[in-house]
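Narrative summary of target 7.
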Amino acid sequence: MTPLDYLLWVAFPYIAAATFVVGHILRYRFDQFGWTSRSSQTYENRLLRWGSPMFHYGMIMVIGGHVVGLFIPKPWLEFFGVTEHIYHLGATWMGSVAAVLTIAGLIILIIRRRLVTRVHLATTVMDKVMYMFLGGTIVFGTVATVLHQVLGAGYDYRGSISPWIRSLWGLQPDPSLMSDVPFFFQLHVLTATALFLLWPFTRLVHVFSAPIGYIWRPYVIYRSRDTHKGSGARPVQRGWEKAELPNVRVSPRADEPARPSRSRTNIRR
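Modeled conformation, tokenized:
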């Protein structure tokens, strides 16, 4: 093992992990107003309506596949009947579908940021850096999958990359596991690590502010107070109480002091 191997596969991941955790804490502590996705929907909606769902749903599929492939040991999956052949087919073809969705959505979003003037003016330097590393991570991972899993004989990354990641989590790093990993898989890992390093300083922090509570939030009920029929208000449904304005005249309180009159008084000097 060379010093470069220890730098790339031991020091760099731990630096990125420390920056990821501490950076988010500091960002939330001192920049809560900047903790946002910096939405540009008000500037342009037509391309965003196509690109955003494709990218986000594709990324959910990609993240789910990575969690299963990298953090769940092979014997655990085999215990539940997921053989190497079944896993290879699922990871290759479902991963390819997820990659196509993600790349297509990302291309639409990048074109939108480049061609729509108002969106382009709202794009910061960190947005461009984030798009570069995010795009590089996705492209290198897709190229590695196509070359080795689709067109090639297949590469069992669960015997090298997965144990290496788990060794980092166990604080017993083993950089030798990454020495024989194919080049594009190595590029994929390095760009993903750099993306985690930059994460707290970009708009990606909004991932941790997903409105999950919206799923079980109670409904907000709006009732019309207009009793005139034909005003556009929906008819009262069965089971709902009709909302009416209270016909109560408010009188001043007895203990409330009288307010001075605002009428002008002529005062003879």
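The CA atoms of residues 93 and 221 lie 44 Å apart.
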